[in-house]
Amino acid sequence: MNEEETRNRHIRPSIVSAGWADSQIREEYPYTMGRIHVSGRVAKRSERKKVDFLLEYRPNLPIALIEAKSAHKDLGAGMQQALGYAEALDIPFVFSANGKGFLFHDRTGLSKTTEVELVSESFPSPEDLYQRYLAWKGEAQAVRNVIETPLYSDDPNKSPRYFQRIAIDRAVEAVARGAKRALLVMATGTGKTYTAGQIIWRLWKSGTAKRVLFLADRNILVDQAKINDLKHFGDALTKISRQNFNDVGSLMSHEIFLGLYQAMSGTTEEEKLFKKLPKDFFDLIVIDECHRGSASEDSQWHEILDYFTGAAHLGLTATPKETTDTSTTHYFGDAIYTYSLKQGIDDGFLAPYKVLRVLLDTDITGWRPSPGTLDDNGNLVEDRVYELKDINKAVVFPQRERLIAEKIIEYLVAVEDPYAKTIVFCRTTAHAERMRSALVNASGERAREDVRYVMRITGDDEEGKNQLDRFIDPEERFPTIVTTSQLLSTGVDAQTCKLVVLDKPIESMTEFKQIIGRGTRVREDKGKMWFTIIDFQGATKLFADPEFDGVAERVFEIAGDEDIAEALEEQDPSAVSVEEKTVEDELVSVVISQGDQTDIIERPPVFKLSGVPYAVVKEQVQYLGPDGKLLTQSLKDFTRKNILTHYPTLESFFTAWQSAERRQVIIDQIDASGIPLEELQKQVGAEFDLFDLVMHVAYDKKMMKKNERIEMVRRSNYLNKYSGKAREVLEALLEKYADVTLKDIESVRVLTLEPLRSLGTDYEIVSLFGGKEGYFKIVDELLDVMYATQ
């Protein structure tokens, strides 16, 4: 019998005979969604992870699982696999079966023997395993009360995801055992508020917590909780405000409270509304986004927690904060459960993402004003170098904002969808307003179609904040693009956000994870399977930080004036199957892949430019002016000007080049004048010779690649003059010319490199041409032929 036949004919009948009802047996139970893989514009899920049998004492209380194998396999053949499932699902009792019996593994540690064999007829009954389960959890009645209190459900077909169930169980049991502080860490998009609502429900219904405060620092977090995940509390639920504190008696008639830090606290004693309540008023306080104010001991908000010290404090966050001033774990302790961004992406509950790094010229080179430069308002600009860190803080470049806006619209139109929900993170509210205006201008007819196509949503703009609900509503088309600084970085459930744009410096890992979390929701029904991050600030360098736990699906790098659609098409061919690992060899930029099992890369590479041709960026270089100060000028213009100082005409340069005993002498002479030819070559690529670079920059000649010059030599009759070993040496020199510098070719050092080294020692090779002088004469002739075409 195969595995399926074994399950149906032997294993399931044994379970049923032991007293397990069909409603308690979940066969082939899938506990993940299957990781989403992205190739080009196509998303595909891998297979979901499944348990052969999951046994529940009652709905959402799984206590055992069984891994089935075919009859010809050993009884314990599935045990290691089953233990892996049990670890992930937090299941205490584990069975491996082959139709002839069961191997039982007790993970509670209460059995004298951890593993025992059972005949098919002695499979444990539901009551037997449940009593073992209760013994494992302890004798405390409060613990048993919460265990026996079911989750709230208005849909019998809807269950929490496995990680939500584990978080709920661990939290209610910790509070029931008397824990005063506990911490749950769950990645953005994994349902922290839903989880909190179920924790509160079970503790409230079991009588463990009679009054509960759900505490947050933003109105939208409180309001979303009230209308969504906590609405089932009905009349028992109220939102604390300064108005309802006028009638404290009425306020105290409620049992579940939603509170905003700012509404409950203040700078004066009169403003501190929480002190109007008895210190023992609350039994439980759930602190949402606890990595913020509540984690800092000198925070004004922290005194609310200090006042209600008798209550249990449960912290919820996606990003625990650990700094010299603030420590989430110092206050709440180590997390009782963690469900990370990486795990959420691996399981398919969270969306993977691509990263597009856009390099802008002045961001890279910096900018220094000429003496006496005035800004748009007539102010004298301070004489210093302005770098990326200064932009939108000490200096504003309107042309930069225009270019960024054009790139965003270009991506939406050419690659994504002009109506894909987009968040642009800016440095300040003023920057957000300038970007809004630039995006309106770049959007053209779409901005005219509806004035809400682009909007600014910041804390100081009521009109924008009034549109926030529409932005996060998957059914609303407008607003489509929003600019913000801080307001949308956390707590906003933008389920269909497909594009996150970073144009603000981000040094905090906590803030970085929160911002990335704006796009991690999956909405398969709306075509939201992944999202893209466009990074103009190099902020995604934080991917390389070991604290970051969710690497990117793909990382692309393009220059500021490259066509985005073409660049992505070149770097991510849609014809390549997502299962093919050879995709790395076909990309010209950094690729970070995440497979289901062994392909996870914990630390992706740092920012890399090897695949980006710098020639397409507006190159700039700093050089010393007559007054000894460093000035900024176009690298290309600077190079051209200085080469023409040495060789005013094409003929003068070409004559000097062809007549030189060593061509490298000319390159050295140009370099000695401060002309960074090697820097320019790095930008255009090693496939071009320095000769072609000079011809192009100084005299506007079309550049020839090295392999084109090699082919030109082969088409000439020059090589036919030689035969035997001498011909092999010349062929090897041509081959080596493709990947070394001119300096190497004109040196005997090249003879120590393959493939020339295989042809003999350097002495043997030069002897083929009558000695070193003869060898260099042949090399010079070879280069004469190679550079014959201007």
Helix-strand layout with pairing:
Blueprint: H1 3-17, E1 25-30, E2 36-39, E3 42-45, E4 50-58, E5 61-68, H2 79-89, E6 93-97, E7 102-106, E8 115-118, H3 126-137, H4 141-147, H5 162-176, E9 181-186, H6 192-205, E10 212-216, H7 219-227, E11 237-239, H8 248-251, E12 256-260, H9 261-264, E13 284-287, H10 302-307, E14 312-317, H11 328-332, E15 337-339, H12 341-347, E16 353-359, H13 361-365, H14 398-414, E17 421-426, H15 429-443, H16 445-449, E18 454-456, H17 462-465, H18 468-472, E19 481-484, E20 497-503, H19 509-516, E21 531-535, E22 554-559, H20 564-571, H21 583-586, E23 620-624, E24 630-634, H22 635-646, H23 650-659, H24 664-672, H25 677-684, H26 690-699, H27 706-715, H28 724-737, H29 742-745, H30 762-767, H31 772-786
Parallel strand pairs: 5-6, 9-14, 9-15, 10-12, 10-13, 11-12, 13-14, 16-21, 16-22, 17-19, 17-20, 18-19, 20-21
Antiparallel strand pairs: 1-4, 2-3, 4-5, 6-7, 7-8, 23-24
Helix pairs in contact: 4-5, 5-6, 14-15, 22-26
